[in-house]
Protein: Heat shock protein HslJ
Organism: Flavobacterium defluvii
Amino acid sequence: MKKIISILLLLLMIVSCKPTAGKNSDIKQTASEYGSQEDEMKYYFTATGNEPFWGLKMGNDNIVFTSLIPGKEKLVFASVEAIKAMDANIKMYKVSNETSTATISIQQLECQNSMSGAISPYKVSIEIKNNSELEAKKIGGCGKYNTDYRLHDIWVLEELNGFKVFVTDFQRELPRIEINAAENRFMGYGGCNAISGSIFYEKDLLRFTKVISTLMACAPGNKEGEFTKALQSTTTYSIENNRLTLSNPSAKLLVFKKVD
């Protein structure tokens, strides 16, 4: 009898130790106070606030407001174009649906979460009301733009100021940049020196800032200076067919090819 019990216990131990890899997805979802990684890929701007708790997700298709406010637990609005202030980096969105209206203001101003203490680069103010209410409820919080995840890669230069580039235009190889979209930073090779810096991202806006490089002397005719000047003149971008095109209102500046 004892032998049978021992065998049963051994079988139970084997079953309980069975690997559970099949139960868990290989894709790990990360989350922050602004939502999941999936939210950050779908929505270009996310914001949160306290007292009462609320959340805001803004995408190209819709704007989603959630809260603990009675009657405003979840409101979905169609996306609209921003109304921009002339004298400050403030964007205003006036939205409405069949039950509610809201005015959302996003200001580029350092903002601290009143509970977590986390610092965000944007201050958000919202005036929201149901159509049956006479006065709008005013709430505030902090937010951030979610950098386009498609930028997160290594890009090698193909065109500079409208002309195809060749290795002979630079020191030993073509310029390249590696963009870290999660940290809003980049690093790479300018055609002679190593370069690095930060990126400033808003919806449809991309700038390369705080660019620094090593101080190696470059051969005459090297186009590194032309390349870094174009990089720092960028304001907009597009991604298509594994190509990253950087431009400003005056011209197409740089075209990169995605590499693995």
Remarks:
- The CA atoms of residues 107 and 176 lie 33 Å apart.
